[in-house]
Amino acid sequence: MDRSREIGAVILDLDGVITDTAEYHFHAWQRVAEEEGITFTREDNEALRGVSRRQSLELLLGEHIERYGEDTLEEIMDRKNRYYRNSLEQITPADFLEGAPALLAAIRSRGLKMAIGSASKNTRIVLQRLGIIEAFDVIADGYSVERTKPAPDLFLYAAEQMGVRPGQCIVIEDAASGVTAALAAEMVAVGVGPEERVGHAHYRYDTIAAVDLDEILDDLAQ
Q: Which CATH number applies to 22-90?
């Protein structure tokens, strides 16, 4: 990576970066799986991190998908989304991940533009529940592009909407597919999580609270 970059914007994933709705997703998918007679564990849920609802359903069903028609698949996705959306009523500003508010403030204090880049179609609902929907210059979500992560389209869309070149963007992600998408977009990838999941990012931190924006910006300025 060329470390001599003038950064103009930061794009953040939502789930696992600003708040953790993974538990809500897990319970919604687990309920659907039980209704369909399929075993679904927390380990299975890890494979769904950062991917679209359709991709998640395909992973959940596995070889069982052959027995479903397209109309039924759509119904299952709608059912899962209904369970998930109902659970989102529980989200409050107390559900920020530790360090997330400070990171958002740090980005703003440096005059950088800021966007959400999430594959979720419920992104705006979650941001509204957290009370921060107005904090972002752009919200790129599951409705913004056809190809979602690990394709780079979502992040490229966010950059275009902000009027910033891809190479001027930092992406903060907790999912392997999101880091892959950021690299494909030729953006600076910051992975949050274990080495085995996000170790292919340019920078990696164990938690959001550990992310050091000054460290990244100083390194990129050299």
A: 1.10.150.240
What confidence tens digit (pLDDT) does each residue in 151-188 have? 999 999 999 999 999 999 999 999 999 999 999 999 99
- Check if 15 is active-site: yes
141 catalytic residue (yes or no): no
Classify strands 188-192 and 203-205 as parallel, antiparallel or unpaired. Answer: parallel
Where do the domains of the chain lie?
A: 9-20+93-221, 22-90
Q: How far is CA 30 from CA 11, 76, 79, 132, 184, in A?
A: 30, 12, 12, 29, 32
- Hey, what amino acid is at 102? A
Strands 203-205, 169-173: pairing kind: unpaired
Question: Which residue is associated with the tokens 């559900």?
Answer: 95
CA distance 36 to 164: 45
Please tell me which residue in 13, 44, 71, 78 is annotated as part of the active site: 13
